[in-house]
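A further point concerns the way the authors explain their paired sequence and structure data. The central task, working out the structure tokens from the amino acid sequence alone, is never made concrete. I therefore recommend that a typical entry be quoted early in the introduction. An entry of this sort, consisting of the sequence and the corresponding backbone structure tokens, reads as follows:
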Amino acid sequence: MTVPCADGTDLPSHPMRILVTGSRTWTNRRTIAAALNRAARDAAGRRVVLVCGACPTGADRIAEDIATAHGWHVERHPADWARHGRAAGPHRNTAMVNTGPDLCLAFIADGSRGATHTRDRAERAGIPTYTYTYTYTNQPEDPRLTAAHALIDTGRAVFVLGRTKRPVANCPACHSTKDGPAHDPQACTCLTCHGFYAATKDHTHIAAMLTAVPDGLLAVRTGTPSGLVVVDIDPHHGGQLDRNLMTPTATVATGGGGWHLYYTHPGHTVRSRPLPSRPGIDIKGDGGYVVTPPSVHPTTGHPYRWIGRRPVAEMPPTLIDAIRTPAPPTIRTPLTEPTRRENRGAISNPAALIAATLAAVDRAPEGRRRTTLYGAARGLARLVDTGHLTPAAAVAALTDCGQRNGQNPRQIHAAITGGFTAEGLGL
């Protein structure tokens, strides 16, 4: 028997019931998130109900937070101390097992007697049971999660990139990977879809993200959502610190040998873009993001790290004025159409640049075409951003290129949206 779901699909009428029991001193969110996510995948489309003992701390509290974030129903069984006295715990444990859960997950720290009792009762009842132990001395929390918690506590929105600094591909359930109406990436409820649009200030969500992408890089969304503007200095492309513009502030030494200077957002729109007339320096503001410590650079193997203990300072007026300075005017070509953008970079032959960008995909070996198409999408997104190409023309050119190189519609869509998102543009 099936029942209709809100999205029009049919789900089995009997939900997947997951009993969580654990120590009230348990603090390792990553282990619980991983176990619950794995159990939910095994549910194969069934509704999920979390059964727990309603302890306000420890494993019960963490599991409830994760279940709520996923939209699962939580069935709470608090101990009735007034009625049962010292036997309230064992009585509650037995009652939870008697509800007939499909699975029991036990998170036991330092041999917790209550969690062990529930686990043993579940095993005797024939319920599939998995036990996780936590030894505080040899299982430190993921340093990325510790850093993420600290960033969230200061009002920053954080998310997870893939291990190559690219946004994580949209999950199969995301509406943007399917045929259908326009999809709003900002309103998407998927965990890691749409790059920086998935950024969160929820501790449980970021824990689930890091579990879902265990080798990913921690990143912070810049601009208004985090109240940040970051100056990205890349010495390999000529970037240098200009002390007349860039006053001392919180600074990160990047894994690639550059620097990130963190400033508070001034309140008006600061678009992510290269700093005019200063090669090797990018402004990461609204529509942007940066990798943040303790992530490790995928090419050099060097970690991103904070330098000193300076707080995030206000943007100096000289830097704000430099960001507002118009770039040199562009030379129009037949490929471009009038736009409302006032600032355009000087590119002498956009048509040749477009052709060369797409030709790189045509020349790519079969196993590298999807990655190269993503790179081409980033290149054409930059041309869109500077007014040399319309978004519709860019998408059409990239789609044609992907099709003739054997990419399916989902791969093409992921490459284009990922490339545009990486350049701070939404589709």
About this structure: The mean pLDDT is 83.
